[in-house]
Design brief:
Blueprint (H helix, E strand, L loop, with lengths): L1 E11 L9 E6 L2 E8 L4 H12 L10 H22 L7 E2 L1 E6 L3 E7 L3 E6 L2 E4 L6 H7 L5 H6 L19 E6 L5 E5 L1 H4 L4 H10 L3 H14 L6 E10 L14 E2 L18 E3 L58 H24 L1 E5 L4 E12 L3 E13 L5 H7 L7 H12 L5
Helix pairs in contact: 1-2, 6-7
The protein binds magnesium ion.
Magnesium ion binds next to α5.
Length: about 425
């Protein structure tokens, strides 16, 4: 059976913020990190509410994932209600990353861009996806990691507790092992130092206290642009003595035998091993987005959320796995002929579309831009759009709600697109 043998918690305001809006809870076997956002002290309020919602803990007897999600939803409702009853707290929200160490598995509930990692066998596995615009675009293969670093909307969070009455909570269970080290952290760590640096710090400091302190120090040394919170926990088999200096609560977790080593549950989330950086190239053939453009509307477009504008992110090595474009195996000339005909139709359709439609996005400098064509890229890097007109308006100055509807890649006629841009430039769009 497994227990939390050693743990570390640390949070720091950083070098540039006046207050610390991060919050954490470390009550083995439950650990939570929340990163609040909002004006005045609203961010602090939101992250505190989120953490307090987890104070009672969970029974663990049912389905930990479901119980964690219920607590997160309750926190969401509380924050949302409060933000509507107090003008100063309007629009406040918080990220949430909660980890529960169960009998054999670690259950995770997650919203926003705080993260959970597992250090195992000298590799750092990322267990959560960021709910940010650029990460969602990257997951769709529509943005390369290089483009993401400079994306004008890179700091926009697409999901948080509080801004909406209802929120989707990501949950997953990860097969745990003795000697696993889990890291929960706010983006004040991951935007300031790379995953390689995190890995190095964890590998070079056997004691979690030393590792945690060195991570926070590294974030501050890199500029400390944001609050930084680090929670570390190490698992061990019951019956094995804890390391010297352990400050764990020595909580016995469950009665199940230690499970055999299993890979991460990749059914819904691929765990990413951080190995010395190999930048992932853009997925050949993946739908592209013009530089700096937001996602097309549809199921992938987040609901209206107050965008959290943050300090620019420091460039960081990519963790995205290269996606490979696999050509279908053509077993006969017949199949080849059919494929060519289909490709011909696609190319003809794309050409016709390219001739007569327009969409609005941003260019590499974040200026609202009209593109002629459709927001797609064919295998081989052939863009089905060309830049038509670059406005003088920075997307960052457009109110978030308006930005979402303006830069949604909906197709327009030339007249409609021109009219929208004219209104924008005249300041007539709300
Ligand atoms: Mg933060």
């Amino acid at each position: 059976m497994l227990r939390v043998a050693e743990q570390y918690t640390g949070t720091d305001t950083g070098r540039q913020r006046r207050a610390n809006e991060d919050a954490l809870l470390a009550r083995a076997p439950l650990f939570v990190v929340a990163d609040g956002m909002g004006g005045a002290q609203a961010g602090e309020v939101a992250s505190q509410i989120a953490v307090e919602a987890f104070q009672p803990g969970i029974s663990g007897s049912g389905e930990p994932e479901r119980e964690l999600a219920e607590l997160a939803r309750a926190a969401n409702e509380r924050i949302h209600e409060l933000s509507h009853s107090n003008a100063e707290q309007a629009g406040m929200g918080t990220t949430l990353t909660a980890v529960y160490v169960g009998e054999q598995e670690v259950a995770i509930a997650h919203v926003g861009d705080s993260r959970a990692y597992c250090l195992r066998d000298g590799k750092l596995l990322r267990l959560t996806d960021d709910h940010t615009l650029v990460d969602e675009l990257m997951r769709q293969g529509r943005l390369t990691p290089e483009e993401a670093v400079e994306h004008p909307q890179r700091s926009v969070i697409t999901r948080a507790l509080g801004p909406e009455g209802a929120v989707d909570i990501d949950t997953r269970s990860f097969r745990a092992r003795a000697d696993d080290v889990y890291l929960l952290c706010s983006d004040g760590l991951t935007t300031m130092i790379s995953e390689e640096q995190i890995l190095t710090a964890l590998l070079t400091h056997p004691r979690l206290h030393d590792a945690g302190e060195s991570l926070i120090r590294a974030a501050n040394d890199a500029g400390g642009r944001d609050n930084v919170t680090v929670v570390l926990l190490r698992l061990e088999e019951v019956g094995v003595a804890g390391p010297d200096g352990s400050d764990s609560e020595q909580t016995v977790i469950g009665m199940a035998p230690v499970s055999p080593p299993l890979e991460a549950d990749t059914a819904t989330h691929a765990a990413i091993a951080v190995v010395p950086a190999t930048e992932a190239p853009a997925a050949a053939g993946a739908p592209a987005t013009p530089e700096g453009s937001p996602p097309a509307s549809g199921t992938t477009t987040p609901p209206a959320l107050p965008a959290r504008r943050r300090m620019p992110r420091a460039p960081r090595p990519s963790t995205a796995k290269p996606r490979r474009w696999r050509l279908p195996r053509l077993r006969s000339l017949g199949a080849l002929a059919i494929t060519l005909v289909v490709l011909g139709f696609i190319a003809a359709g794309a050409y016709l579309a390219w001739q007569s439609v327009y969409f609005i996005g941003t260019n590499g400098r974040g200026l609202v831009t009209v593109y002629e064509g459709v927001p797609l890229q064919l295998p081989g890097g052939v863009n089905l759009y060309t830049r038509k007109y670059v406005s003088g308006v920075s997307a960052a100055t457009v109110p978030p709600a308006r930005r979402k509807t303006l830069l949604n890649h909906h197709l327009h006629s030339e007249g409609d697109a021109a009219s929208l841009i004219r209104s924008l430039e005249l300041g007539q769009l709300e």
